[in-house]
Amino acid sequence: MAAPGPAGAAASPSPQPPQLPSPFAELVKSPSGLEKVVLRGSRNCCVEVYLYGGQVTSWKNDNGEELLFLSSKAIFKPPKAIRGGIPICFPQFGTHGNLEQHGFARNRFWTIDNDPPPLPANPAIKAYVDLILRPSEEDLKIWPHSFEFRLRVALGPSGDLSLTSRIRNTNTDGRPFSYTFAYHTYFSVSDISEVRVEGLETMDYLDNLKAKERFTEQGDAIVFESEIDKVYLAAPSKIAIIDHEKKKTFVVTKEGLPDSVVWNPWDKKAKAMQDFGDAEYKNMLCVEPASVEKPITLKPGEEWKGRLALSAVPSSYCSGQLDPLKVLQG
Ligand SMILES: O=P(O)(O)OC[C@H]1O[C@@H](O)[C@H](O)[C@@H](O)[C@@H]1O
Question: Which regions are flagged for Low complexity bias (predicted)?
Fold first, then answer.
């Protein structure tokens, strides 16, 4: 029996934080009061995932260098989604439907899922966390479908970050549902005018700045001189973001996600966003593996899987040595 406290009342044990299956994952409270899971890898390698939005907000390499962009003006207070990292757009990407822009998953509280159905085993991955989102009564009023959305965030031994989403239709009334989806990934870059994206040249895209009209990308790799908001269709499974100044290449690998959005608000839109610094557009680029053009449809009991894997490798492109095909084909 517990010993009585000073006032004679039984001492209540201090609440224990939930145990996570990975010894390299820890649940902590951020200064904003929101909870986040910290995944630790070798040396200074580290990933942070907020339960709010199921959102990765930080990915650091061995040297402790931040690889994702998070706005200095990001608001960590519901219902605002956190500006930066990797927001999850579900069940709607952008304005492709009647829901709020980018759907509601990014501003809901997810919970830790300590007993998810197994994923293919990868013994090399020691730092991971599984989250789950189910719709609330309120959510069912705006999107009348029952679902389970399981998200695994994993930090690989060489510092690679992967996100695996599994979405299951749990409707009991026999109805299918359809959705669009994106991993709205904000990369940190040295200077947007020194960046090029390879893998999307010659692709068809829908231009969000031109009423979603369809065009074909011309010429070489994508470079940035003004606002861009394009949905590249049937994009390849590997895309390279080459940062000349940092001599770094991000390799974005996607599975189950045919499209890829590329977004930078540039100066005018940056100024109009309350949670984004006026000049921050220079230091970020969104490349967002997505399924936008053709919504995904699931019948009751069916499950969809979409995976994003990110790695950051040194590049020597500025000296003209890098063969883009080597980056894209491994
Ligand atoms: O401000 P939000 O809702 O986070 O959206 C940011 C941008 O997200 C991009 O994915 C969209 O293509 C843009 O049209 C949008 O402006």
Answer: 1-13
